[in-house]
Amino acid sequence: VIIAFFIGMIHHYVSSCCRERVSESQVLIQSRVLRENGKYIPKQSFLTQKYYFNNPEDGFFQKKKTKRKVVPPSLVTDPTMLTGMMKGNVTTNVLPMILIGGWINMTFSGFVTSKVPFPLTLCFQPVLQQGIEFLALHASSVSSAPRYFLNGFGLPSIYSLILDTNKAFKTEWEALELMDHQWALDDVKEELMAKDLHFEGMFKEVLQTSISYNILTIFQYLFIYSAFISFENEKLPTYSKVKRILQ
Questions:
Q1: Can you tell me the distance from the alpha carbon of 90 to that of 108, in angstroms, rounded to the nearest whole number?
Q2: Where do the TM regions start and end (predicted)?
Q3: The overall pTM is greater than 0.70
């Protein structure tokens, strides 16, 4: 069941990789971000974006609802539609189902995966127990490959509940409609002014560090100058004097 479910999800997202679906998912993300972080923007900006999504006349969610109610073309107006539907059905549904069903039958051959909740006659045993050569097994038991094909008939209703964009738009519209703006940065100026940021201590520490560094630099220059003075009477080149100072 898990394998069939995730394969169907992958098939759905691969087949719907177009700009319209991507833009729809991005708009849903923007609406969720607006609900979560709308308290950090001014009220007028929040209401403007909310009006863009939830306007009852020409809001984004309302336009998507009306746009999807389109009458599909009929065979009278488009004779090639039937051929295109057959090709699309074979390449996107039938062929992947056969390949994955063969892989499941080869990998999980001989496994009893489930049991039908009602009694069956023995004539169903060859159909539901493919790959199991055990005649004493109850006829209501189902092996791996028949269970996969049964999932192919039952999972589309679950996909319609999870992947229906119209329901996602409706849910997001209701959540955003109930959202009320509460300005989270209303008293941020007073809170910032009331805090003790310890600028005096910070400046004092920086000043002490700067003075210590300057004093250390002065002592280094004095040491180098005194070393040159002590080597002045020696008849050595300047390179040798510097080398002895560094040593």
A1: 25
A2: 94-112, 211-231
A3: no
